[in-house]
Write a structure and sequence with these properties.
The protein is α/β, with parallel strands linked by helices and 256 residues long. It is 25% helix and 24% strand. The chain has one domain (21-251): Dihydrofolate Reductase, subunit A (3-Layer(aba) Sandwich), CATH 3.40.430.10. The chain has a nine-stranded mixed beta sheet with strand order 6-5-4-3-7-1-8-11-10, sandwiched between helices. A two-stranded antiparallel ribbon has the order 2-9. It is globular. The structure holds NADP nicotinamide-adenine-dinucleotide phosphate. NADP nicotinamide-adenine-dinucleotide phosphate binds at residues 34-35, 42-43, 46-49, 52, 73-77, 80-81, 114-117, 165-166, 168, 186-191, 194.
Length: 256
């Protein structure tokens, strides 16, 4: 599919392509997917939750969720949006079964939260998810802290980056070892920027709504300052979706 025109929005996600990547690398295929305004904003103010997508795009987003083993967000998004991270719209659960019945083990992707200091409140909605959430931490944890989540989540301890955050390389190795073959990364801005900086993403599926916000950007200043070396999409395709526009493409991988 990667080089072929997409005729059906459901073909935005190619299970065979993702599976091949997982089998070749042992790491999950990473799809960055977010909704932004025409001027590249995720929201008006950081920490504020706003409805950007039209209903048709939301349906599509939930379908895309249903096609991934994991759905990943940062603690900033967990606190701001308190998302359920399930596939509620577009009959996502049954779509997953009927369209890719052999490719998906679960109808709802497993939630994964990057939370270096393990500060996520245990009352958030994602802890009611049908699949047990994974909380990735980068600081030492105490038995008291772990006990708080023992019934509701798996805490995985990973080495910190120089900034004290979760190392994405170590995270993807661990998720692959857990059998998670594909991960949809939904944000927010700091997490999306980290995936771009670490060159850890395979595909982007971006919903663009016809709004100007002058607000909080999806992508923050990148460490790469050389224009020719910036993260760039290949095989780009665009589709109208309700009142929004969907843009998708693939990141060049070192061996390609
Ligand atoms: N429009 C959309 O599609 C969309 C999607 C998602 C979110 N949003 C919006 O985006 C905003 C939240 O974005 P945000 O940038 O504040 O938060 P975020 O990206 O969701 O979370 C960032 C936090 O994750 C933790 N983290 C751990 N390891 C990390 C790593 N390797 N790289 C980056 N972060 C890491 C850090 O906190 P610790 O150091 O404490 O671990 C960091 O501050 C909200 O307003 C939300 O509504 C919009």
């Amino acid at each position: 599919m990667i080089n072929e025109p997409i005729n059906n929005l459901h073909d935005l996600v190619d299970q065979d392509h993702m599976q091949n990547w997982y089998e070749q690398t042992g790491r999950p295929f990473v799809t960055l997917s977010w909704a932004q305004t025409l001027d590249g904003c995720l929201t008006l103010n950081q920490g504020e939750s706003v409805p950007i997508s039209c209903q048709k795009s939301l349906d599509l987003t939930h379908f895309i969720r249903s096609q991934h083993d994991g759905i990943l967000i940062g603690i900033g998004t967990a606190l701001a949006d308190n998302p359920r991270l399930t596939t509620r719209f577009s009959n996502g659960a049954s779509s997953a079964a009927s369209i890719n019945g052999n490719g998906r083990a679960h109808a709802h992707p497993r939630p994964i939260v990057l939370d270096s200091q393990l500060r996520i409140p245990a009352r958030l909605r994602l802890f009611d998810h049908p699949e047990r959430p994974i909380i990735a931490v980068a600081a030492p944890t105490t038995d008291t802290q772990l006990a708080k989540y023992s019934q509701s989540a798996d805490i995985i301890q990973l080495p910190p980056t120089a900034e004290g955050r979760v190392s994405l390389d170590a995270l993807l190795d661990r998720l692959g070892a857990l059998g998670i073959r594909h991960v949809m990364v939904e944000g927010g801005g700091r997490v999306l920027t980290s995936f771009l900086n670490a060159s850890c993403a395979n595909q982007a599926i971006i919903t663009i709504a016809p709004i100007f916000a002058g607000g909080y950007n999806a992508v923050h200043p990148l460490k790469e300052k050389n224009w020719a070396e910036l993260p760039r999409l290949q095989n780009v395709q665009t589709f109208p979706c309700g009142s929004d526009l969907i843009v998708t493409g693939f990141f060049a991988q070192p061996e390609s």
